[in-house]
Structure formats: structure tokens, C-alpha cells
């Protein structure tokens, strides 16, 4: 188990993750929800500024933005919970030193921090009317395959075994989603239809993963018989958030 000084550092480091998650959710909700509540506001503002709009609501409806907002929310909740389980198991549990003798908190923290920065950018790209249409799905794909780089950096350390199955499922989700996206876009010449169908898979897998974490079976543990990895035996504690910054 981490010493008192280490736990204090971990507490405030994980608080930074919470800050990034809060900023990302704020940007996504301000973009998505505000437009869904008042869909005529954006075209009026852009017309006033003399700026073009790529996909008017009168042509596509509100469903594409609802799908994007749903994808964003389930992914950020899923990865935040996953990070809590990961750092709790590897650095906070009573058996962490025995089960994970070879770790590097700085490397894991930087990889996680970069991951959540990507979510902040994803929140800024949620608007389907004014941002480049392909940027949002491309960044979703990057977020899913990012664990490959994290696993590659952790393969020689004890923490690599925690994220292996999770990384594998994420990569397969990204690959199947990418094939679905490209095939449908080529067949129908409809990028929004292709995006919608690919995102159904992402939403389904993310909800399944969140459900498993709620049932205390994180990192797709039920698939351990297919992809055997040595996961922690003790239920990992969730890292405490840091103290709020005074106003």
C-alpha cells in the first residue's frame, strides 16, 4: 500500500483528472445541450456573423448531435471509472506492492493525463454544424486505440497486465467501428449515417464496460478465460479526489 506521502500525491494527481473531466463535460454540454434546447439559435448567430453552416437542422434533425453527445458522455464516464480502478489497484490497495512490484506512477499519470486532455478536445468538436465533420469520429478512434501506447509503455512493468484485456477490447471496437464507418460512407456517401452506425457499437461496448465496473468486475474480467491475465485479487479502492481549490 502507498505511504502517506505517496497517497497525498496520488490524491491531488487524480484530482487533476477530475478537473479535466469537468472541463470536458462543461464544453460538451454547453455545445450540445444548448443547441438541442434551442436549435434555431446557432443558424441565426452564424447568419449574423456571415459564417457558413455545414449541416442545418432542417436537413438532418437533432439525432446526429444526440448520438455524439451520448458517445462523449459514456466514453468519459467509462474511462474515468477505469482510471479510478487502475490507480486504485496498482497504487492504493493493500496488496499493490506485492501484486505490482514494478510500477512507474509518473509514466502512468502522464499517459492518463494526456488521455483526458483528448476528451477536452473531443468536447470542443461535438458541434456537428461548424467543426470539420470527420474530426470527432477520428478523435473517438484515437481515444479507443490510445491504450495501445499506454500498454506498450507498461508491458515491461507489472501494471501492463491490468489494462491488457481492456486495451484489446478497445482496439477491436475501434477497428470494427472504423470498418463500419468506411464501408457505409463509401456505399451511401452519407458520412452522418456511417458515423451513427459506427457509434452504436461504441455506445454498446461502453455501457457494457460501465455495467461491469458497477458490478465490480472491471477491465472486462469475465473475458479473463479467453485472454488470461493476472488481475488483482483484492477489490481496489477508488482514489480520493483532491481538496477543492478555495474560491
Quick structural gist:
The chain contains nine helices and no strands.
Task: Give keywords.
247 residues; mainly alpha; elongated
Structure overview:
This protein has 247 residues and is mostly helical. 70% of the residues lie in helices and 0% in strands. The protein is elongated.
In whole angstroms, the N-to-C terminal distance is 33 Å
Q: pLDDT below 50 for ≥5 consecutive residues: which ranges?
A: 242-247
Q: Assess the beta-strand content as a share of residues.
A: under 5%
Shape: elongated
Compute the gyration radius: what is it?
A: 20 Å
Taking the sheet with the most strands, its summary is:
none
State the total count of DSSP E strands: 0
Contiguous helical run count: 9
Overall pLDDT score: 82
Number of domains: 1
How are helices and strands ordered from N to C?
Answer: HHHHHHHHH
User: Which structural category do the helix and sheet elements fall into?
Assistant: mainly alpha
Work out the helicity level: over 70%
List strands and helices in order, with pairings.
Layout: H1 4-37, H2 41-49, H3 57-60, H4 63-92, H5 96-99, H6 105-124, H7 135-154, H8 160-188, H9 191-214
Amino acid at each position: 500500500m502507498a505511504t502517506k506521502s505517496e497517497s497525498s500525491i496520488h490524491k491531488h494527481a487524480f484530482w487533476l483528472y477530475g478537473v479535466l473531466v469537468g472541463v470536458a463535460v462543461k464544453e460538451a454540454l454547453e455545445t450540445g445541450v444548448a443547441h438541442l434546447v434551442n436549435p434555431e439559435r446557432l443558424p441565426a448567430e452564424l447568419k449574423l456573423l456571415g459564417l457558413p453552416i455545414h449541416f442545418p437542422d432542417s436537413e438532418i434533425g437533432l439525432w446526429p448531435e444526440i448520438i455524439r453527445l451520448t458517445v462523449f458522455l459514456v466514453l468519459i464516464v467509462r474511462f474515468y471509472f477505469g482510471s479510478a480502478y487502475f490507480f486504485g489497484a496498482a497504487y492504493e490497495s493493500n496488496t499493490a506492492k506485492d501484486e505490482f512490484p514494478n510500477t512507474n506512477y509518473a509514466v502512468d499519470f502522464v499517459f492518463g493525463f494526456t488521455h483526458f486532455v483528448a476528451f477536452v478536445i473531443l468536447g470542443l468538436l461535438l458541434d456537428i454544424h461548424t467543426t470539420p465533420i470527420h474530426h470527432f469520429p477520428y478523435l473517438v478512434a484515437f481515444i479507443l486505440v490510445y491504450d495501445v501506447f499506454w500498454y506498450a509503455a507498461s508491458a515491461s512493468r507489472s501494471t501492463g497486465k491490468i489494462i491488457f484485456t481492456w486495451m484489446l477490447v478497445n482496439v477491436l471496437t475501434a477497428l470494427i467501428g472504423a470498418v463500419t464507418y468506411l464501408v457505409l460512407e463509401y456505399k451511401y456517401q452519407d458520412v452522418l449515417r456511417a458515423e451513427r452506425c459506427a457509434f452504436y457499437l461504441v455506445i454498446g461496448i461502453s455501457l457494457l464496460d460501465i455495467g461491469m465496473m458497477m458490478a465490480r468486475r472491471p477491465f472486462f474480467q469475465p473475458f479473463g478465460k479467453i485472454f488470461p491475465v493476472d488481475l488483482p485479487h483484492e477489490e481496489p479502492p477508488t482514489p480520493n479526489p483532491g481538496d477543492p481549490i478555495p474560491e
